[in-house]
Design brief:
Number of helices: 0
Strand content: 25-35%
Strand order of the largest sheet: 1-4-5
Order of helices and strands: EEEEEE
Length: 90
Amino acid sequence: QVFPMPTLASIEDEHQRLTILSEHAQGTASLEEGSIDVWLDRRLAQDDERGLGQGVMDNVPTRTRLRVVLETEGYQHANPEFEITSFCKL
């Protein structure tokens, strides 16, 4: 299942957390255990019924900047609920 990634996506275990920060919205999923997949482009042959009224076929090159943060110290894995880290707070 693909989820919206307005600004970031992260995965973690008891030893480290990997966060991907994006300057604009993307789509994301975790198709395999321990992985993050990021959709950089969207192309639809038919209308998705979200207001455009047609498919999206006008792909143009866009510049995308992704930042990857790997935390191995200074974060707590005690709570299974997602919590924004200090790297993501501005």
